[in-house]
């Protein structure tokens, strides 16, 4: 299982407000047929699942702002793909919380 952080930034928009574009990207996540889990944050989105599935979803996320009128889209992706044991978003948070005790 991989964890991906993705930030999609629409450029060439008519307004500096990006909420409608963000909503179109979140719709891609909500409608994804792939077995993924996601967490929306104020600055990016974290997704977990099988790497091939995640990359397919990221591609659709990248395309969404174009469908909403953006002239250009910049997408940043960070992949955490650990293969020696299953890692999840919850497990990573739990590990840090345990170390804080």
Number of domains: 1
* Whole-number mean pLDDT: 94
**Main β-sheet, spatial strand arrangement:** 2-3-1-4
Tell me, briefly, the overall form: elongated
According to CATH, the fold-level topology is: Alpha-Beta Plaits
Query: How much strand?
Result: 25-35%
What percent of the residues sit in helical stretches (DSSP H or I)? 40-55%
Major sheet size, sense and barrel closure: 4 strands, antiparallel
Unreliably modeled segments: none
Number of extended strands: 4
Broad structural category: alpha+beta
Count, helices: 3
CATH class: Alpha Beta
- The secondary-structure element order is EHEEHEH
From the 3D coordinates, which CATH architecture would you assign?
Answer: 2-Layer Sandwich
Whole-number radius of gyration? 15 Å
How far apart the termini lie comes to 27 Å
InterPro entries: MTH1187/YkoF-like (IPR029756), Thiamine_BP (IPR002767), UPF0045_domain (IPR051614)
Organism: Paenibacillus artemisiicola
Family: Belongs to the UPF0045 family.
Protein name: MTH1187 family thiamine-binding protein
Task: Tell me about this structure.
This protein has 101 residues and is an alpha+beta fold. It has one domain: Alpha-Beta Plaits, CATH 3.30.70. The protein has three helices and four strands, in the order E-H-E-E-H-E-H. It has a four-stranded antiparallel beta sheet with strand order 2-3-1-4. The protein is elongated and about 45 Å long. The two termini are 27 Å apart. It comes from Paenibacillus artemisiicola. Belongs to the UPF0045 family. Pfam families: Thiamine_BP (PF01910). InterPro entries: MTH1187/YkoF-like, Thiamine_BP, UPF0045_domain.
């Amino acid at each position: 299982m991989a964890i991906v952080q993705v930030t999609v930034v629409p450029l060439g928009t008519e307004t500096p407000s990006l909420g409608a574009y963000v909503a179109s990207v979140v719709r891609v996540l909500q409608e994804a047929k792939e077995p993924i889990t996601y967490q929306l944050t104020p600055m990016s989105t974290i997704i977990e699942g099988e790497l091939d599935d995640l990359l397919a979803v990221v591609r659709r996320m990248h395309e969404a702002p174009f469908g909403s009128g953006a002239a250009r889209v910049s997408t940043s992706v960070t992949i955490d793909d650990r293969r020696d044991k299953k890692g999840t978003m919850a497990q990573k948070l739990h590990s840090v919380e345990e170390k804080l005790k």
